């Protein structure tokens, strides 16, 4: 029983952290239709920035916010490459992802792993200390959930503002944005900044959970983010009151649960990335299949 | 040598040159020394065979297509070097494709709110201004399509005709100097295209918007608008207005079309 609870807690912790990244992927992929590969580089960027800042004595909450800002900056570079220098979306992401490798190494001063075991993190200082004694085992889940909810609410509010509405319009129909005299390129840059900011924030929290930064932890993040968004939206599509941001987080939790179950069933760790790719493939295929079926069901062409 | 600028004209295009794929085997020389002026409140209908350069003319005006040389003025503003999205603050445009004029995943209300804020700053205030909803409703009522009761449904679930009517409303909601219509009734069934054309005429007359409309419907070209232009190979072969225009009927236009085709040997 304890094993089960522990497993569940683990899934929730990780699912919620990666859920923050998935919400970012929702903005770049679902809202802007931009397949952003730079996430593989900006998640570890968030880790490295956080590690360096916390080792430098910066308050962990502030460090998390700065990590978000650094990710946003990297994301806006992806956007700049695509929008202003006319490099294809995929390639822009690959360029930033590749460049981030060196940037991250520069931040960690050359070490692939940068631990900070005895430093303050959001999980052992500040609000975390105010939690009652009995909740200690669940402090990570509680704080991570709070972070995910804050990000979700901020994103939901943003997407309802003028700027957010324009962002959605750009993803939907660039020509419309032009028609209302707005620069679609600017909005793409903003959207990618938000997406990668979320990825870096997830990296920041992830690193504070393990109290170390790992240069290699970015591999497969794009795949995981996309899979989360697609799983979340296709499962919860029917319930119209659930916001897409919530769907992304739920998708991440379900995704993590799938991985955890596979590991419990004895899948060797080496096959983890293969499994991640398989899950995304299945999600994509079933999503295509589902939406095709649905399209056939309700083709209504309203009369004029 | 060139006609002096008259700032009473809304549009002045002078010595426009445009060649596609210059220097390659696919070279298309379209405009050589093309000139056009449009007066304030004028409603111009443009007809012409496929490939005669109508869409390109509109694209040049809107800034979608760059010109090789020449001058373009909107009133007294030189817009030749202005980006497309900047020109859009003076120009409204409705496309042939109903999907282009609105955002299908956003609701009618959201589409109208966005358009209402055209040219202004899109900051962090509420995207939909609740106090404007009544105004949007009265605007939609003018379309007589019952859209005022559907403001919360996504535009993607409207019919092509409804979307086109909405696009027309949206593009003329804020003050503009010029309305550009590129075969905006072509994708609609006969009845819908009739409705949208009548609507166009009503809006253009009510707001006295200077309008440039491309159409393949010769009846629309003859019946609506107060100036008629026929284009062929990047040139205006007919350009008549007022009483001169009234002398043309559909059969005349058809005859000229055929003559042009025979000249081309097809
Ligand atoms: N982007 C482009 N590249 C190359 N050639 C082009 C391009 N756009 C237009 N053309 C050429 O310019 C000519 C005019 O095209 P345009 O689309 O303006 O014609 P149109 O009068 O709008 O025709 P239609 O009635 O079919 O809409 C055509 O010969 C076309 O091949
Ligand atoms: Mg055309």
What would a concise description of this structure say?
With 304 residues, chain A is an all-alpha fold.
Structure description:
The complex is a heterodimer of chains A (304) and B (266). Chain A has helices spanning 2-31, 39-55, 60-83, 89-107, 127-130, 139-160, 162-172, 174-179, 184-210, 221-236, 244-264, 272-297, and strands spanning 113-115, 212-214. Chain A has 304 residues and is mainly α. Chain A has a single domain, classed as ABC transporter involved in vitamin B12 uptake, BtuC, CATH 1.10.3470. In chain A, strands 1-2 form a two-stranded antiparallel sheet. The termini of chain A are far apart. Helices cover 32% and strands 24% of the residues of chain B. Chain B contains 9 helices and 10 strands. In chain B, α6 links the parallel β7 and β8. In chain B, α5 runs parallel beside α6 (190-206). Chain B starts with 8 loop residues before the first strand and ends with a helix. The mean pLDDT of chain B is 90. The A-B interface holds A 158, 160-166, 168-169, 172-173, 175-184, 300-304 and B 83-86, 88-89, 92-93, 95, 99-106, 110-111, 113-115, 117-119, 121-128, 145, 157-159, 161-162, 171, 188-189, 191-192, 195. Magnesium ion binds next to α1 of chain B.
């Amino acid at each position: 029983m304890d094993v089960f609870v522990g497993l569940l807690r683990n899934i929730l912790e990780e699912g919620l952290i990666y859920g923050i990244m998935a919400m970012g992927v929702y903005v770049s992929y679902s809202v802007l239709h931009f397949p952003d590969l730079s996430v593989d580089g900006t998640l570890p960027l968030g880790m490295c920035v956080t590690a360096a800042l916390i080792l430098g004595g910066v308050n962990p909450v502030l460090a998390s916010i700065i990590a978000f800002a650094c990710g946003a900056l990297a994301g806006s570079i992806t956007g700049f490459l695509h929008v202003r220098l006319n490099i294809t979306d995929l390639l822009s992401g690959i360029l930033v992802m590749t460049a981030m490798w060196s940037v991250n190494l520069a931040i960690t001063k050359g070490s692939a792993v940068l631990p900070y075991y005895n430093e303050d993190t959001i999980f052992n200082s500040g609000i975390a200390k105010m939690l009652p004694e009995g909740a200690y085992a669940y402090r990570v889940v509680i704080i991570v959930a709070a972070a995910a909810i804050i990000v979700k609410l901020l994103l939901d509010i943003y997407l309802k503002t003028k700027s957010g509405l324009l962002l959605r319009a750009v993803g939907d129909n660039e020509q419309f944005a032009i028609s209302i005299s707005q620069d679609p390129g600017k909005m793409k840059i903003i959207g990618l900044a938000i997406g990668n900011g979320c990825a870096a924030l997830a990296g920041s929290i992830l690193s504070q959970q393990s109290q170390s930064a790992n240069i290699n932890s970015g591999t497969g993040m794009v795949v995981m983010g996309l899979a989360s968004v697609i799983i979340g939206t296709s499962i919860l599509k029917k319930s119209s009151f659930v916001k897409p941001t919530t769907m992304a987080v739920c998708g991440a939790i379900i995704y993590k649960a799938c991985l955890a179950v596979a590991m419990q069933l004895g899948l060797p760790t080496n096959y983890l990335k293969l499994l991640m790719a398989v899950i995304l493939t299945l999600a994509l295929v079933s999503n295509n299949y589902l939406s095709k079926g649905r399209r056939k069901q309700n083709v209504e062409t309203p009369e004029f | 040598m060139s006609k002096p600028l008259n700032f009473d004209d809304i549009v002045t295009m002078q010595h426009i040159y445009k060649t596609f794929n210059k220097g390659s085997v696919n070279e298309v020389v379209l405009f050589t020394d093309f000139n056009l002026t449009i007066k304030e409140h004028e409603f111009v209908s443009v007809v012409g065979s496929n490939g005669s350069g109508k869409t390109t003319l509109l694209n040049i005006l809107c800034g979608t297509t760059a010109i090789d040389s020449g001058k373009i003025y909107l009133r007294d503003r030189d817009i030749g070097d202005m980006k497309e999205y900047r020109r859009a603050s003076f120009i409204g445009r409705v496309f042939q494709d109903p999907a282009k004029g609105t955002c299908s995943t956003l609701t009618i209300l959201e589409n109208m709110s966005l358009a209402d804020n055209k040219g202004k700053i899109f900051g962090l205030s509420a995207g939909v201004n609740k106090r404007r909803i009544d105004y949007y409703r009265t605007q939609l009522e003018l379309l007589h399509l019952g859209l005022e009761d559907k403001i919360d449904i996504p535009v993607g679930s409207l019919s092509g005709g409804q979307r086109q009517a909405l696009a027309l409303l949206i593009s003329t909601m804020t003050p503009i100097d010029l309305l550009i219509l590129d075969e905006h009734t072509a994708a609609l069934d006969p009845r819908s295209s009739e409705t949208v054309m009548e609507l166009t005429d009503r809006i253009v007359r009510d707001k006295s918007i200077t309008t440039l409309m491309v159409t393949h419907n010769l009846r629309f070209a003859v019946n609506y608008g107060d100036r008629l232009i026929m284009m062929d190979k990047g040139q205006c072969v007919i350009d008549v207005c007022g009483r001169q225009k009234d002398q043309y009927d559909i059969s005349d236009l058809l005859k000229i079309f055929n003559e042009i085709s025979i000249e081309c040997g097809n």
